[in-house]
Structure formats: C-alpha cells, structure tokens
Design goal:
Layout lengths: L1 E6 L2 H16 L5 E6 L5 H9 L6 E2 L9 H19 L3 E5 L3 H13 L2 E5 L14 H11 L2 E4 L2 H9 L7 E3 L3 H14 L6 H9 L5 E6 L8 H16 L3 E6 L4 H11 L5 E4 L4 H10 L2 E4 L2 H6 L7 E3 L7 H6 L2 E3 L4 H13 L1 H8 L10 H13 L1
Parallel strand pairs: 1-2, 1-4, 2-3, 4-5, 5-6, 6-7, 8-9, 8-11, 9-10, 11-12, 12-13
Helix pairs in contact: 1-2, 1-7, 1-16, 3-4, 4-5, 7-11, 9-10, 9-14, 14-15
The protein binds uridine-5'-diphosphate.
Length: about 375
Amino acid sequence: KKILVVFGTRPEAIKMAPLVKEFEKNSSSFETKVCITAQHREMLDQVLSFFEIIPHYDLDLMKPNQNLYSLTSDIITNLKPVFEDFKPDYIFVHGDTTTTMATSIAGFYSGAQICHVEAGLRTFNMKSPFPEEMNRSVTGVVANIHFAPTITSRQNLLNENKKEESILVTGNTVIDALLFSVDKVNSNNFNDQEIESLKKLVDKEKRLILVTGHRRENHGQGFINICKALKEIAEAYIDCEIIYPVHLNPNVQKPVYNLLSGINNIKLIDPLSYPAFVWLMEKSYLIITDSGGVQEEAPSLGKPVLVMRSTTERPEAVEAGTVLLVGTDTDTIISETIKLLNSTETYLNMSKLHNPYGAGNACEKIVNYIKNHIR
Ligand code: UDP
C-alpha cells in the first residue's frame, strides 16, 4: 500500500518524523513518501535534516506576508498533481495547521483514506480568526481514521459521532520524537555546533528558565504582559537566568526585543533546531511557554511547565498537574513562577508526575493499525 505523509510546519515535522521512520521500517508492506508544503521553511528544514528525511515532494509554499486565504488555496491546488503522480492509498496529516486542514480537503477529493494523527483535541472555542480549532475540527470531519493521543481526545471524537472503530488511542508521537532525540543528542558520536554554542552560553551556576511563545492569540498585549513578567522575574531572581529562543514572527520579535534586550540574566536567541532545544529543555529548571508540543514533551523530562494561555486543548496535562495554565496576566505569571522557584515541595510535586501523553510507542501502534486495516 502507498502511504503519503504531508506536513508543513516545524511541530508537525517533529511529530510526523518518527512515523515516517516507522513506515520506512516496514517497507515490505508500505511504500512511503513525504510531501512538505513548507508553510514554515527554515524551521522545517532543520527538523528534516536531524531526522534524516528527504521529502519526495516539496511544494515550497512559504511566501513573505503569507495569508491564510492564499495558503489554503495554494495547498489544495498544488497537491492535485502530487496525488495524481503517487496515487496514495492513505494520506497522513497531523494536528491543526492550515496544511492539515487543506490537505485533508484535497485528500478527500483524491479518494484516499485520510488519517489524522493527534486527532480529537478541542478547546470548544472556535474563535475567528484563530485557525487551530477550525482546522482540527474540519480535519476531523473529513478523516476516515483518527489517531487520538489520549482517551480524552477519543471521547471528544465519540461525542462528535465518529465511529468507535475509526479511532485508536496511541499516545502522542511527540514522545517518540523526544525519546529518539534525547538518545541521539546524548550519544558520543553526535556533534552539533548549536549545542556547543549553547554550552558556552548557559550559566551553569544559575537556575535556567526556558521560555518560548508564538501563538497568534498572544500577539499584541499578550506578549507585552509576558515580557513585563519575565523582566520582573529576572530582576528579582538573579540566581536564575532566562533563555528565550524568540520565534521568527515579527509580531513576537518586536515586543520581545524591545522590552527584554539588555537585561543581564535574560538571553534572547534565535529559535533553536530541535536537537539543541531538546538539549536545553533537559538543562532547564522550569519552562514557561504557550507551545502545545512543549507541554507534552516537558513532563517526560521532569520539567514543570507554566502555560501562557487561558484555554487549552490539552486538559490531560493540566489534570495530571504537569502543567499549569497561567494566561498572559503579568502578575499571575510572576506569582506562579515565584512559587516554583521558592518552594521545593511545589517544584517536586509538579516535576515528578507521570506523562499523560504516553510512553513513546505511538508510531508503532499507528503502523500496526494500518497493517490490520489493509488485511
Ligand atoms: N521547538 C524547537 N525549537 C525551538 C522551540 C521549540 O525545536 O526553538 C520544538 C519543541 O520541542 C516542540 C515544537 O518545537 O516539539 C513545538 O513547536 P511550536 O511551539 O512552534 O508549536 P506548537 O507545539 O505550539 O504547535
């Protein structure tokens, strides 16, 4: 059978890379090809090179000042010749991006089975113009097979009347990616220029607070509040150092560089390639982020996470207590960070919990499911 895996952004690439590897391991049953839309370019290419994946089709759709209207239609239009060339039986998409949604629509026209990885996440807050909830819901409508990371996401799909036999709970493939990467990064023969530079940058005497943020819903006042909080924390806790790989989006770069440049124990750096980021997560004391993937990864490394969002499509982590929602209110970010910095008990309670996103065998489960499906 022919498998086409389509993705476009860094987080999708990280979460789909181990699946591509798993299908390739089973080459007697599957012919596997990868198509990238390159909705993000540079950050995506770094991931592909780390996982040693060479895409068979590269739509190369990233444009300056890209908007979602043209991106959506470009993806649909440009996938037609790819589908006609490869004639996939199964098309795999991931998560909630414009690539995910547009590919599933195009895939529907092609007649292939649409397989949605990381299916069933919901905020129940479809707020225009933020696209994620719409993207994942539309994909859910079109998909034939839903790979849900947790029983909560499975239940969301059942509530939408998806058939029980079309859903498999797998855990999140990001844990597969993380465990592979931790091994690779720590192996003796792995040499990485970025990690060598980080070793020089990190002050080993200080507790490291790792920060990332990119969400559209936080653009504007959200990032201003976040930066104010980080500034106060850095000034009050000189035994800590904040390292912040700043997302390339100008709506993020502007407030962050304006408000946080020139503070001694805040180091603003470019976004890191995945291995370097994994290395830095391992070295960190705690993580402050609005990223979805980081919330899922950090518990496997025993790192508490404060999430700068007011809603989440990842309630399992909040329920398990591995992450805490702090929104983008300056005072709340400061007070919750201080609790973790001041109280060993609070810290240990949060860092020693079991990861609700699985054990790192999601890809094997997915491939086995497809093997049974074709029998
Ligand atoms: N990540 C990375 N480099 C960075 C920041 C994050 O490789 O500088 C990784 C991180 O480990 C996670 C993924 O990128 O696996 C998350 O991506 P992002 O926060 O952009 O998207 P989200 O998960 O919120 O969709």
